[in-house]
Batch of 4 targets.
Target 1
Amino acid sequence: MSAKFDAKAVSAMFKNALNRTLTKIANEQKKMLRDDIKVKNKHLHAKRLKRVRAKQNDLSIKLTSTTKYITPFMLEKSARPHPNPSGYYELENKRGGKFYGTRKKGVSVSGWNISKGHISGSAYYYVQKISNLDDALLAYTDKLKQKAESIFNLEIKKDWK
């Protein structure tokens, strides 16, 4: 009796294992951003962090992100710049929005990028960003690749009975 090799079944098994791996790695990526940079969970949604799932005829997966600034208000309160007499202060614009100003001139203060604005001829400095979301995620690439390989091996073993 000869066993038949079903290419579609094997391809479907690999596709499912890859997609389960992608889901677990995407959740791990979000967890790393929440733990390390303290980004609020509501800012880590599908518009900013995209998943490209495996298909039957294309067995590849990808995690991509947009080039979004990580601003102070995207972070938890403990990770934001702290208002104090010599450094940062909180401002409100005429439409009611808040932003962090600083009395310190320069390109960067304590890891935060500083930008310059003008109101009726006088300059002010404000905290713009700590980094870009896509740049921050590049730091996790190697860790996530290793973890994805081990998860994928476990998922294949589950299906390969």
Note: Strands lie at 49-52, 62-65, 69-70, 88-92, 98-102, 108-109, 112-119, 122-129, 131-132.
Target 2
Amino acid sequence: MRNVLLKNFQRNLVWVMIILLIGACAPEQAAEDVAPDPTPLVPTLGIPPTATFTPAPTVTPEPETLYLSDGLPEGLIKLDELIGINLSANPDASFWLGPAENAPPGEVLVTVTWVYALAAPFPTLMDNISLNELQAYWLGNPAGAVDALAQLFVPDLLARQLVGVWGAPDETRIQTFQQPPEINVLWEENAWVLLPFEALDPQLKVI
């Protein structure tokens, strides 16, 4: 009897163990579906559009201009050396070059002294005359040796200056010019000439 009970107990124990093992191996009951917590909304910061940079318009500087007064001595300024400056026919240009008494209002940047010489054909016997004698000849009142002189050639610009200093010239004796006369003309017409010192020719002599 004891053996039967023991066998029954062992058999029941095996079944219990098997049930437990099976139970342990059985799939777990599905958990109840739980609604997920709502995901909090993250506020989106608005980013303003990037502004397009527009550079301010630049003003192109006007080129500098130079006005040359009429009758300036030839060679007074070398035009081919003017860099970045354009010649202008407008007296209101950036720069003005001409006789001091005709200069427009503005700052004086530089002054130039232009020296003229009284010259005659080289074989002329007379060597000198005074300034007073030259002025008298200009006015038509020659005296002494210059009385025999037929004509005096004077540059236009210088003639205008002398008018302001000495008065109106004797037009029968004073001849103005823009281009100096040929030396042979001076010789043939018994004439002298006033020239910028730099324009003197070896065939002329200074009186």
Note: Residues 64-102 form one domain.
Target 3
Amino acid sequence: MIKNDFRFYDTYEELEKEIRILKLQNEIDEERIKLNVQSVKEDLNPLSIASDVASSFAKNAIYLKIATRLFAMLPIAAILGKKEKEEEKKKKRKRRWF
């Protein structure tokens, strides 16, 4: 980022010190950019993407299984299950008469 403020230095030593600091900050920023580029390359690797997708599917399958089991434990699930069974019985009864 470019600063628009001007600074006056009393000695060349102060100026050289500030220049050294800015050069070091610039080198640090360049290294951060290199690391970020490398990280992006690793993340966009096809093997890495496939691995992430597979682990995501596995996690979602586990969550679905847990949610299904928890829902089955709730009394509401039993009530809903009974209503569905009653509706199926009514449909079967109606079919017999036709």
Note: The first helix runs from residue 12 to 43.
Target 4
Amino acid sequence: MYARVRNGNGRVSQSRYAGLEKMLAEKERQMQKLQIYELNIRKSLVTICNLLVRRWGKLLPSLSRIKRARVKNEEDKESKMETGGKEKGPQG
């Protein structure tokens, strides 16, 4: 029922809970690895978001220029329709 376990100081000791202690130590190591993975994933997400924001910031001015051009074209078309297709006043 007792398990033999090597202590941190190198001695072998017998303990009723040695197996549980060993399992607990392993679980703690796994938990530390998972925390490191989580931290790395968070850093990666922040990096990706920053890159997307930077890219969107570069796209935004060109998108607004395109939008302004479309609005201007629509306004020009409407004004031509109102004047009957003539841009200048009546000639006469």
Note: The longest helix spans residues 18-82.
